[in-house]
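Dear colleagues,

As part of the handover before I leave the project, I'm documenting each prediction I ran so the next person doesn't have to rerun anything. This entry is a single chain, and its sequence is reproduced below.
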Amino acid sequence: MAFADRLLNAWYTGHPALALLRPLESLYRRVVLRKRARFLSGEASSYRAPVPVVVVGNITVGGTGKTPMILWLIEHCRQQGLRVGVVSRGYGAKPPRLPWRVSAEQSAAQAGDEPLLIVQRSGVPLMIDPDRSRAVQALLASEPLDLILCDDGMQHYRLARDLELVLIDAARGLGNRLCLPAGPLREPVERLQDVDAVLYNGAAGDRDDGFAFVLKPTALVNVRSGERVGLEHFPAGQAVHAVAGIGNPQRFFNTLQGLDWRPVAHAFADHAVYSAQALSFTPALPLIMTEKDAVKCRAFAADDWWYLAVDAVPSPAFAAWLDAQLERLLQAPQP
């Protein structure tokens, strides 16, 4: 097991050696608290867009279902007649310049795996730039929009926001509730008191402190041809190679088990770069990966490689709450 995996496991299951990291945790905590305080006090300036900005992020390291939730928000807002744009850091992307407008025909190496997935699925206008405020300004200069969704960026305070939505994995929770590097938190747990809504991925129902959502498998899509088939394509008990280079690969493997398949798990680092050789496994079995992985594998995919398409399904209470918030924001005068 790699060091990063051992550290992640320790954050959620406990390990006495983490006590050695508490001095660094204390220093990290002071730094992030001071950074946020500078923006709240006005000591550091932030850019406020002329349209509402909704940040979708987390305070933990690792996957929480953020990309499927962004896709759900895009579709939901469009159904309300809103013109939606997305900005993203573009982790791992190497575009010719920044900010960079992502289009569906670009490569994951150029655009980043998550931004490319979002654009290929939804066709949404999307700009990448580590400076989210610069990305917003470039996106608004390119076409008229009513609303901006910020993919991640909870800790990017140079961009003012009108709503903050925080996603948490319901099964893993906040681990030991400590900040990096002694725990999985990017910000202290008290930060949740200031956000507008918390959504729990995989929760059985809404909770007193947040809304529930689930990731629902909808189809298998052939990575090479794009053919879309039903989940019954593989019978119960089918053995498959399962590939996941996401923040929480075990959740993907559990999903495949829940579909009555027998996955041979191959976990990779988040945002991993793949090759045909790296994904050549024995024995010969069909291979199923996440959609985020698939956008990086189409050029060399074999005939029996598939990705599992999933959709975020939030609770009706969250959808109603969001509609009320959007109505309030869109009626309010913007700068």
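The chain has a mean pLDDT of 94. DSSP finds nine helices and 13 strands in the chain.

All the best with the project,
I.
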